[in-house]
Design brief:
Strand 4, helix 3 and strand 5 (111-112) form a beta-alpha-beta unit. This protein has helices at 21-29, 62-86, 94-102, 117-125; strands spanning 2-8, 13-18, 43-45, 88-89, 111-112. It is of the alpha+beta class. The longest helix is centred in the middle third of the chain and has 25 residues, at 62-86. The strands form 2 sheets. The protein has a 3-stranded antiparallel beta sheet. The protein has a two-stranded parallel ribbon with strand order 4-5.
Length: 144
Amino acid sequence: MIRYALSCDHDHGFEAWFASSSDYDDQAARGLVECPFCASTVVRKQVMAPAVSGTTKTAPAPDMAKQMHSMMMQAAREVRDHVEQNFDYVGDAFAREARDIHEGRSEKREIYGEATPAEVKKLKDDGVPCAPMPSLPPDPKKAN
């Protein structure tokens, strides 16, 4: 396995794991490597220092890392809750409705819904503002 530091054409940085460097090249060429923040498939490798055994890594203390993760999940939950309570859900008509609002063919209002990566890319290329909703892990209290 190989880990790459990647960034998209909107300068969002993220990491991804691949079985080999040729797997990355193949998936990137087919448009399968996608930015988790904006769904862009225009992705490039970034300079990354190799992990060398025997070096000392400084990572957050386990309690601090757990606390940071908890804070991030809480913030993501609050964003989702705000959107779901205050925006109109338009389902899979999101791309069409966002474009209509942007171009003045529909009344201006806040919406959320579903869109394919290709639809999101087209919206962004055309200057239509949109952003992905933060995803959340499943709620263990609601699991079977």
